[in-house]
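Board notes (copied after class):
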Amino acid sequence: MRKYEVMYIIRPDIEQEAVQAAVEKFQGIISNGGGEITKHEVMGKRRLAYEIKKFRDGTFILVNFSATPEVVAEFERIMKISDEAIRYLITLDVA
């Protein structure tokens, strides 16, 4: 299993309970696929550098995890079709 880091931004116009549900859904994709989450940090609502999908701010979440490439591909597929996430970036953690 490889180590990865993902940062994603949740839309600012949804309620806090919906943000928590979305975070749990995305963590479930990693956990149910056999991955292991090593660090999870909700960084809170922050202003974006530029407008994304007509939003000027969003809730930032940072997750470090270990998983197989298949789990990462499934996570990325779900992120693409998710309405809650407006942007995401998955990187291979080399440190």
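Comment from the instructor: The longest strand covers residues 36-52. The radius of gyration is 13 Å.
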